[in-house]
Hints:
alpha/beta, Maf protein, 35% helix, 23% strand
Amino acid sequence: MNKLFIASSNPHKLEEIRDILLNNGIDLELVCPKDFGCEEEPVEDGLSFEENAYIKARFYHDLYHLPTIADDSGICIDYLGGKPGIHSARFLPEMDYPHKCAYIVDIMKDVSERSARFVDCLCFIDGKGSVHYYQGVNEGTIAYEPAGDKGFGYDPIFVIPEYGKTEAELGEEYKNVYSHRAKALKEWIIDAKEKFQ
């Protein structure tokens, strides 16, 4: 497998995936929608991380006929009943991420139950069109205030209890090994080394 299509144009996600793969001995040419000048996007109307990951993977695999990885991820906060969950990227759409983080921290300022988790479901459609799923979960808590500038999205408010720091404080060295996306990708890498290369 020489080329691997990554079903995302998020530069932060692409860089993170590239680093995780390289750190695990997978050296592939990663391509994404922007490399093909593609502005089409699938409608992510699934009811789960798995369904949304599949929708993205199938959409781009059918367009370019390349082995394709798509993931859907989000933060699930117990106090909010598991929200924003699959709607994490579209949660409070009028706000950027710093304001979303500030909003969550504010509504939870007097809440003692702060458990949360990042969930990542990865869908891989291989060169034969077969579909495979992998999942990574990272448990943590919601910070009392945002901290750190080494992450993106909700990283500044997601605390890793054993470190007492947010993912945005811990940065790439942590995320490329222990994040929800890293865990899902490592499961794929095990299969990739055995089956797909």
